[in-house]
Amino acid sequence: MRVLAATLFLLTCLPSIVLADPATECGGGSQIEIGSCVADTLQRVDATVDIYLGFAVRSAAELDEVTGRTTAVPALEAAQAAWSTYRDEHCGYVGATFGGGSGTGIGINSCRVELGRSRAADLMRYAQ
Hints:
Elements: H1 2-18, H2 22-25, H3 31-67, H4 72-96, H5 104-126
Helix pairs in contact: 3-4, 3-5, 4-5
């Protein structure tokens, strides 16, 4: 019975696991269509990160005000700058693994989408 329950659980989760790759989420089609879709997705993810960062900055500012310190906002700003650098460098590496092929841009943008989604979730944990 446990095996059946586990199997059913995995089958219900599998579609979300399969769609975890932004290029796959964009469906089939030409590289131009997929590239355009991933670029559009990246714009939405970047806008979401900016919004969530604003929420987190406001929460950090409130914390600094309540505690009489000025540590939370500068720490968040430093963390965001470090994350941005990491995203750019790591996704540059991902692009390099395509060996200069025509899917390089899609790979880089897909990487940025994945990391951006994760960053947005992290930022919302600290936005009260």
